[in-house]
């Protein structure tokens, strides 16, 4: 195949998983690097688990990540339809071809009979392989079984295909990521390619779809390696060109177990809801098993595509480090233009009356609170003291700061002096500096202790955003009111 054509083919049985997103990204990068095509195919043959909600989630998540496809269910293309359930009329022709060539046969075994075979293998402590009892049924025997009401499944004849195209039972292929892989096909067993209800199985349908869509390279997770051996044989038995395969290592949790919801978000949409930027997410995912040649980790998708080499993907599993993702996300938050950041933060501030702030005040609030943000959602807990006249005091701030004699004296002095201050940024900087200096020179109180008292009274906390900015946004009246309220004996001495 002269043109590079790759695909991502998720099953819409759940929201788009971060592992599937990485597979999509590596396919996308490979296509971009080689001036190829990136195709989206929806494999929705599992009707019981498929839902439109999950299909929409796949679309929305891939688009949010910037992984736009060249062909797919919504954009069309020359080899559609791109939804597997709409392709059922395509597969019978190829099943029949395999039956006629002897590479497949009808199997009339009931579920109960197959279960008994599996039990016998288990009891004998052997790996289960289908017995091939239906391989050589006569037409008379088949007719008798049909008369009993049995409908045949169609099985692929592994041994016949292997013998026809290979010198031994060992099937070998060169993996783009893992190098040379092999398997003894005697261990596979004749697998079903069409169910008794006429529906194609995954391993059969995917071969036909990949062939007809002219997929040149199949890049997917290593959990598909066992499927690859089966699919290669089907390609060969049908006389179809075999694509090149590359299998990616698994993404593991920090404890090296399978990544699951107990570790944190796993779906792209969940990460977005938590306040991760998609630029940060895609940048981080690209580094799961691959490293830029220059060692620089912060890169755009286009920059990554220019540097991408599939042969440089690690064959090992990758560890999903949530802390590193948060670090990267904080970097991207800091890179956002102010106006964009203001808009991105609004969904996380719906519980607050933003309309009580002017645009200038809102801008200021974002400016002084953005530095420590690792997630957009962090803003929710970072700003409650900017709203309303009263403020909730953290119990620890109350006990360790506001209840001390020093804090009480500082606050009484603050209230008294602040009444005469001009409430502007420049003047507040100057007045607070003088205020801290006064308490250090006259009472030996460290400047930070002085400000802890003021901050705790006005914000309810002992740490946070720039105090001058906070005072400027709150205004003179509210600031003095809160300081006054924190004084146990409000009478100023």
Structure report:
The chain is mainly alpha-helical and 493 residues long. The chain has 20 helices and eleven strands. The strands form five sheets. A three-stranded antiparallel β-sheet has the order 3-4-7. A two-stranded parallel sheet has the order 1-2. Helix 1 links the parallel strand 1 and strand 2. The mean pLDDT is 95.
State the total count of DSSP E strands. Answer: 11
Determine the structural class based on helices, strands and strand pairing. Answer: mainly alpha
Please state roughly what percent of the residues sit in beta strands, choosing from under 5%, 5-15%, 15-25%, 25-35%, 35-45% or over 45%. 5-15%
Within CATH, the superfamily of the largest domain carries the name: HUPs
Strands side by side in the biggest sheet: 3-4-7
Tell me the name of the CATH class of the largest domain: Alpha Beta
Low-pLDDT stretches = none
Could you say how many structural domains there are in total?
A: 4
- How far apart the termini lie comes to 89 Å
The main pleated sheet reads as:
3 strands, antiparallel
Q: Output the number of helix runs.
A: 20
Shape descriptor reads elongated
CATH architecture of the largest domain: 3-Layer(aba) Sandwich
Q: What percent of the residues sit in helical stretches (DSSP H or I)? A: 40-55%
What Rg, in angstroms, do the CA atoms define? 33 Å
Under CATH, the topology of the largest domain is which?
Answer: Rossmann fold
| Mean pLDDT over the full residue set | 95
